[in-house]
Write a structure and sequence with these properties.
- The chain is of the alpha+beta class and about 120 residues long.
- It folds into 2 domains: about 5-75, Gyrase A, domain 2 (2-Layer Sandwich), CATH 3.30.1360.40; about 85-115, no CATH class.
- The protein is built from 3 helices and 4 strands; from the N terminus they run ββαββαα.
- The radius of gyration is 20 Å and the shape is elongated.
- The relative contact order is 0.15.
């Protein structure tokens, strides 16, 4: 649930979901982000989600803060709808030439290079 909606400069809206950074808060931010994106609200230029905030940039020639705030406050967000996620694999190289911190990781994780 959005705790506060405020201006961010002339042509952006700042949706604050609170100070807590956790999976539930981030899921709520992503639900709003996807709902607004899929709604194709006239005048919105860009959506920028973070862990517990959502910034909505808009075209001041088309809409304004008050109109957009009202639209956002009246959105119907389905809390039961599952969010799609994707797994991203990032390849790593443990060759001594490239892995400058491998010794530190071996020590910290108490693992051999092959297991990291």
């Amino acid at each position: 649930m959005i705790k506060n909606i405020s201006n961010l400069g002339d042509a952006a809206l700042y949706c604050d979901f609170g100070n807590i950074v956790n999976k539930e808060t981030n899921t709520e931010v992503i639900r709003y982000f996807q709902n607004i994106k899929n709604s194709n609200i006239y005048g919105i230029n860009n959506l920028t989600p973070s862990y517990n905030k959502l910034i909505i940039s808009f075209d001041l020639a088309i809409t304004n803060f008050s109109k957009l705030k009202k639209i956002i406050e009246n959105l119907s967000i389905n809390k039961k709808e599952s969010l799609s996620s994707k797994k991203i694999e990032i390849p790593i190289c443990c060759d001594e030439l490239f892995s400058l911190d491998i010794k530190r990781l071996e020590s910290k994780l108490n693992l051999k290079r092959e297991k990291i």
